[in-house]
Task: structure prediction
Amino acid sequence: MDVVYAGSPLEGLAGSSKGGDLSLILGRSGLGTTTLLVHVALNEVLLGGRVLHVALNESVDHTRAHYDELIRLLGPQLEDRVDNPALVMERGRVLHSFCARPFTIETLRRDLQVVREASGFEPTVLLVGGLEHGEQLQQRTAALAALAAELQLRCWVSVHSEAPLPAPCFEQASLVVRLVPDGARVRLQRVHGPGPGPGPGPGEDLPMVLEASTLLSLDAEEVAPGQPPEQIPPRRCTLYSGGAAGSEATFGEIAARWGVREVAFTFEGHLQERTEGRHELSPRELAMGDVSLSYVSKRLNRSYNDRGGLIRCVLQTLWHMVSRSQQIFVIGTILDDGTVRGGTGWSVELARMWSRELWVFDQVRGRWHQWRGGGWVPGSPRITSPHLCGTGTRQINDAGRGAIEALFEASFGGLE
Result:
């Protein structure tokens, strides 16, 4: 497999996939399995291939958002290779979603037939995102391997699992890799397949360290597992917020003094206090972060009344802030049930669901707490990732402001 842009996580997997092969990507939900599939698709389309991407647990718009963000970040690199990378991607990729309908291999086969016969679209790569580790995994893996071999497609499948795979899955797959969290970074591990790595078992790390949100290879490729990352200069960082009065405006003001780039998401009818880096989300972009209010109420153990659609738009905006960030910093109050008070509590829930590094400064207790091991643990945070989210209560007090000041000082104060 040729790799067509610098920083690709596929660099260490070159030559590991051919027509008819099945490759498996293992990792817990939220760690980046979809992002790795997007790298496979982007690389394939830029080489002239065609991709059918089937999402089992996400809508088409949610899946497309992963592509849009990666294309935006890679920007000039892709434009040096093709004119209008986003348009090239749309023409070379078809997205299907099973989030609102049952998934079976036979249904997938019928979808493939429709795509090929009705649309004249002949995929060279099939991506299936979001298989769960369970009793059907072995059967579905075998069926996907048979489908790939029959149609001579290269098939990549992501599996949400930290548990070992059943042994027969290794017989079906030519390659098995695992995404392993390492602080604010991710390591890619070869568990089975071509290369110097071992067979089924603990596996070995490939020689790269990846950013958690983009899975692009970091410069510090020789960092040992568990070793703290080097201080990151503020000019390399981007703060995502909503620019609302209180915590978000304070994060923006302080970040600007250190030279951190800002992106402040908003929507029509939303009142922003801080507009530096303003990005008004379109209705389509807002829809990417849509969520049932009953589900939010259940997660946060409280009821929400959507006043003219405002609450829903705020929750959708939080989705954009958290999804782009590797570290989440929140000013608020931790309640007895472990949730955080107010609408900003949804950003905390998203960060927990997606396994982001999460810190909350509790203004009542007067200290930072990190979500770790299923509970809140007091600690002292530092900014170690280029993409961070700063949000929280509108009623920020002197202690909350001081906590943000101290966070940026501890993170960047020692840099020349």
Notes: The chain has two domains: 9-211, 234-412. Confidence is low (pLDDT under 50) at residues 196-202, 220-228. The longest strand covers residues 125-132.
